[in-house]
Amino acid sequence: MGLLRLRGASAAAGVVLVVGLILHAALLCNGGITSTFVRKAEKTVDMPLDSDVFRVPPGYNAPQQVHITQGDHEGKGVIISWVTQDEPGSSAVLYWSENSKHKYLAKGEVVTYKFYNYTSGYIHHCTIKNLKFDTKYYYEIGIGKTVRQFWFRTPPKVGPDVPYTFGLIGDLGQSFDSNRTLTHYESNPRRGQTVLFVGDLSYADNYPFHDNVRWDTWGRFVERSAAYQPWIWTAGNHELDFAPEIGETVPFKPYIHRYHVPYRASQSTAPFWYSIKRASAYIIVLASYSAYGKYTPQYKWLEQELPKVNRSETPWLIVLMHSPWYNSYNYHYMEGETMRVMYEPWFVKYKVDVVFAGHVHAYERSERVSNIAYNIVNGKCIPAKDQSAPVYITIGDGGNLEGLATNMTEPQPKYSAYREASFGHAIFDIKNRTHAYYSWHRNQDGYAVEADSMWFFNRFWNPEDETKAAS
Ligand SMILES: [Fe+2]
């Protein structure tokens, strides 16, 4: 009898234990999707210096490393940049709109810099302004020596229902995988019109003495896209090039000489944080590697910037930064945390639609969550669903030589909606003031596969919960 009772008790305890374990598993494992796609493990290596994508254009002093970015706040200006190697040559740009006989000449400037034992070529920057919206322009550079011609299309006039398609690329580098990412972006039928680049460009700093020749090769590699459509730049940690061991103590020296941005047009005081309007989007670029604490220039700027965003004019509010705030990979753990603590309440208050970051070399999309309720004593320090919060997307999967981030925290946290350790790029395709279609395109199948996607319902114009709107 006693034995039976004991057996009964232990069986009951066993049932409780099993039920407990199931409940425990259910509680812990209710995160989103961890992709079952497993990328073939192979080393990521840089393309050799004699690769065709790094070829120097023929001709004496021919302009190379040509790239453009937005040159004002509204989208009527373009900054055109390039490098000449043999002599300074002309910094002027000759440009004209399609179907126009009148050609314009804009004067630019030329800069150089030294980095340890490297001396740069002649880096030219020329801003052309007051362009017509939604117009194809041709431009010529290298005037007087070897002339090269390119073209771009200006965005439509800023307005709430203007469709526009942004590409997202991050942590690109110059490996064979980087080349695949760029090719997939270029051939994507969704046709990105402007690249939002979330930082870490060339990875030159991974070479001995931060070999700046790799800044030049990177410039030539991306020219095939960046000379024809604007790339909107964000500074990452690989732009710091801070190397006191070789006497290089000015942070961002190569980056700020090579990549100009229109920061003054948004009353910013440094090129690392700024904003632009483009079509129906308002894009705020933040600096993970510049001071962002209270009273700092970036803090004061952002505090004044967010209330300026008129969602009736630009319904889509996009933020770019390098170090992610929500990241469930075992890489760069907590690196974005202090900035999150400073700025997340503002992102919720102003209903930022989406935050794109890089840094972690993989892909991840979050639920709409916030983690702003904690006040030291209340214990509320877990991300909670919040329809006013942005979606956080990590797109640091361009394919640089450091390889993929494959190690994830387990179980997948609730806030993580989808994650996958593959290289790729994304497209944010704005349809009108209420709808945007977002898709992430994995590289590893020979062509870009849409591996993750989401409809965005603008919460300013469509305050209904996204989940309800989707059903
Ligand atoms: Fe990074």
Automatic annotation (TrEMBL):
Residues 389-448 form the Purple acid phosphatase C-terminal domain. Keywords: Glycoprotein, Hydrolase, Iron, Metal-binding, Signal, Zinc. Coiled coil: none annotated. Residues 63-154 form the Purple acid phosphatase N-terminal domain. One of its GO terms (molecular function) is metal ion binding. It comes from the Eukaryota. It is an enzyme of class 3 (hydrolase). Residues 165-363 form the Calcineurin-like phosphoesterase domain. The keyword Iron applies. It catalyses: a phosphate monoester + H2O = an alcohol + phosphate. InterPro entries: Calcineurin-like_PHP (IPR004843), Metallo-depent_PP-like (IPR029052), MPP_PAP (IPR041792), PAPs-like (IPR039331), PAPs_C (IPR025733), PAPs_N (IPR015914), Purple_acid_Pase-like_N (IPR008963). SUPFAM superfamilies: Metallo-dependent phosphatases (SSF56300), Purple acid phosphatase, N-terminal domain (SSF49363). Belongs to the metallophosphoesterase superfamily. Purple acid phosphatase family. This is Purple acid phosphatase.
